[in-house]
Amino acid sequence: MRRAGFGIGQICFSPPDPAAGAVTPSLDQAVSEGLSLHQAGRLNEAGAIYRRVLAAAPSHAEANHLLGLVLHQSGQHGEAAELIGKAVRQMPFNAAYHANLGVVLKSQNRLNEAVQSYERSLKIDPKQPQVQSNMGVALLGLGRVDDAIAAQRQAIALQPQSAGAHHHLANSLATVERFEEARVSAEKAVVLQPTSPDLHYALGRILMAQEKLQEAAGSLGRAVQLRPDSVACATLGKVLMGLNQPVEAAASYRAALATDPDNVSLLFALGHAQVAISDQSGAAESFGRAVELDPGNDNLYLSLGGALMASGRPEEAEAALRRAVELRADDPIARSSLLFLSNYRADAPADQITEQARAFGAIVERSAKPRQSYANSVVPGRRLKVGMVSGDLGSSAVARFLVSVFPAIDPEKLELFCYSMLQREDHVTEQIRPSFPHWVMAKFWTDDELEAAIVRDGIDVLVDLSGHTGTLKLPVFARKPAPVTVTWLGYSGTTGLSRIDYVLGDRFVAPSSAQGQFTETIWRMPDSYLCFSPQAQAPAVSSLSALDKGLVTFGSFNNVNKLSDATLALWARVLTAVPGSRLLLKSRPLELPEVAGKVLDTLGAAGADLSRVDLVGYIAEAEGHLGSYGRVDIGLDPYPYNGTTTTCEALWMGVPVLTLRGDRFIGRVGESLLNSVGLPDWVAADEDEYVAKAVSMTADLPRLAAVRAGLRAQMAASPLCDAPRFARNFEAALRGMWEHWCEKQANA
Q: What is the pLDDT of residues 701-737, one digit of tens each?
């Protein structure tokens, strides 16, 4: 009797056929003994018996057949096919021989021949569910999906309780995206054979295709419990990432790596899960290991560079990104990442960064054909369609400058469209989204799809809110999909694209003397180019700590990446110039010993008394984070990359910030913010004045206490927090850009 259960390529065992021996009863008895060993899995012993039989009787069909099966099960498929083919020629009416020849041929990917063998077997004995299902698998491999489905249905008709046939039917249906039918079949297979990890895995994959991620995680989790192989663990990790459970995903990827430690794809996936849980140091380790295994992969260097940068290791990050550019010089993402990193370097001249940006723009624009004509009606005063392209309309620093602006926009003047690059929305998105009559999730769109949507929507003014940060969509802007294009907010500098018409700034961040630093034309807002939205849950402003402690505490909560050697050296001078003062630095990477050590070493080398330096890591709760400003009397702004959100938070918590006027957009943000809230005296022209101001501002503590006590109200009343005022300025800016375009069309 044949075995009742079967799977992909399941072989058929039959009792010896008396007609297949035809030499002596002793040889048939030997074959029977070999078969017993064979079925017990003792392949070497069984094979030895079959060979002895064939040595005595080379034409013994059953011995040829069974030895062929042993060889097949041992991975020697070529010789197996020859032996079973010989048996078939000797006994052409034996259905099992044809069926098993089909199995062996399938294993060699000789699918057409395999199907022919299965068909011959079924012609001899049509009631073979196992063979029907095996043939269905081969037909699916040939792309004959309808025939494969029919074969599996026939197998089920012959044996309804066949888990294998239901499984293969599910696979066949999934191939043609009949996922709901596939799910039903896969679930039947699981019910029939609930301890099979393969069946739970197959069901999980189908549920993934249906975007039923929670259910998919359940099925894949069961598959992993039954057999924690790397493929199932990796797939579960992918689903968990889709469910925004990066901690669990990272654990699943680690489980996969336990059995497949040198798998580059798994290391890459683990690295991104670690990024999602802010384990940047761990991510750098994962990406670094992947780079060791695949040193020619530019994408790995990109991810490694990002993780190193986020973990406060800018020099190593730069080396990784430069290697990515070397490997693929025409890759805009690599060049964009390296350009962004250059903004943190005090030793990178402004004109050098501009040239880097122009080089990026040249590469992007070389491969992007700009639109030459538009269907937009050339009417200067009409309601404008304004499109926003952003990956930051959620919980992000950028969103803090948008949540109060968009609701203040006059919908009679601007019709807002959002092309959101967020992978998932959150509570901040819920605050922003009602201001947009048109909102699409475009994260997974191609550049072609995004361009088509912008043109189809008839956008008049297209606004880039990301620049060289986050999701890079500047290549779409290089196609000039709208008549007017402008970059604002997300990136503090030039994009490098000549096809972006304007950069929105103000007289501080982008004075007339700085036009050479931009490929775009500067459009200056009358007040600040920013409008800050303070957190509603911010704690009350505390009293001046220095009055209670008798010493002044300087502080910076900026990301450690901004703490350039030049910045730390300057702060060391401040600490030395103000006797007894302390320096408090707070940033998540400072939790890492190697990052904290580097910061302390740099401060020490510049002459700072390290016993007066405090380093603090991440504080999850917003109130705890903002409450920490109670320990700070004066904020210190880094350079050349100024704080933005951090400076605004400090000011809101009553902490004035001392800034150094820089030579580029990102180095003048502090000047813009302080002038906007009425603190122009806190802007220093050079390093000596920076130190001198630090000394003078601490000389009169009652005056400093008064500044602290009134700063929140002063800021709330300033243009920096006046959303309606900013909205009118913003509307006027876009209208002016549009009118200028209309004028050019009239004069063309």
A: 999 999 999 999 999 999 999 999 999 999 999 999 9
Residue at 144: amino acid letter: R
Shared domain check, 713 and 572:
yes
Torsional sign, CA 586, 591, 595, 596: positive
Q: Are 135 and 102 in contact (CB under 8 A)?
A: yes
Residue 10 pLDDT = 64
Question: How many residues in the chain?
Answer: 748
Choose among 249, 246, 201, 247: nearest CA to 222. Answer: 201
When the pLDDT of each residue in the chain is averaged and rounded to a whole number, the result is: 94
The answer to whether 720 touches 530, Cβ cutoff 8 Å, is yes
> Same domain for 417 and 565?
no
Which tens digit of pLDDT belongs to each residue from 449-494?
A: 999 999 999 999 999 999 999 789 999 999 999 999 999 999 999 9
pLDDT beyond 60 at 19: no
Give CA–CA dist 2/665, Å, rounded.
Answer: 79
Residue 513 domain boundaries: 384-524
pLDDT surpasses 60 at 4: no
Judge whether 570 lies within some domain: yes
CA 541, chain centre distance (Å)? 38
Concatenating the DSSP letter of every residue in 268-335 gives: HHHHHHHHHTT-HHHHHHHHHHHHHH-TT-HHHHHHHHHHHHHTT-HHHHHHHHHHHHHH-TT-HHHH
Whether 531 is covered by a domain: the verdict is no
Question: Residue 401's closest CA among 257, 534, 543, 260?
Answer: 534
Encoded amino acid at 240, one letter: L
Structural domain contains residue 8: no
Please, which pLDDT band fits residue 23 given cuts at 50, 70 and 90? very low
Phi, psi (5° rounding) for residue 502? -135, 155
Q: From CA 586, how far away is CA 580, in angstroms rounded? A: 20
Distance CA 107, CA 101 (A): 10
Residues 394 and 479 in one domain: yes
